[in-house]
Amino acid sequence: MPIEKLNPLHYMGQAEYTGFWQKLFATLLYGFWGRFFFVALVVTAFWVGVRQRNPTLAAICLLLAAIVAYGGGVMNLVRSFTG
C-alpha cells in the first residue's frame, strides 16, 4: 500500500528515529530559531486565515506552531518516564 511508504520506521530503526527528533528539538527548534519558527507560523496562520480565507491551511500552520512550541517539552517528559 502507498501509505506504508510514509512510515519512517521502514527506512530506519526506532532508536535512530527517536534520536533524530530529539536532536531536532535540541538544536533547531530550541532558542532563537524555535521562537522564530513559532512566530512565523502564527503570523502565517493569521494571514492565511484572514486574508486568503483558507481555514484549513491556517489550522495546519497553528498545529505546526504548537508542535514547535511544545514538542521539546513533550519529548523531555516522555523521555523522563521511559528512561
Give the helix/strand class: mainly alpha
Calculate the mean pLDDT score and round it: 87
Low-confidence stretches: none
- The gross shape turns out to be globular
User: Could you give the count of β-strands?
Assistant: 0
Largest β sheet strand count, sense and barrel closure = none
Number of helices: 3
Indicate the radius of gyration in whole angstroms.
16 Å
Q: End-to-end distance, in Å?
A: 35 Å
Q: What sequence of helices (H) and strands (E) makes up the elements?
A: HHH
Please indicate the percent range of residues in DSSP E strands (runs of 2 or more).
under 5%
Fraction of residues in helix:
over 70%
Mind explaining what this structure looks like?
- By secondary structure, the protein is an all-alpha fold.
- Helix content is 73%, strand content 0%.
- It has helices spanning 14-27, 32-50, 55-82.
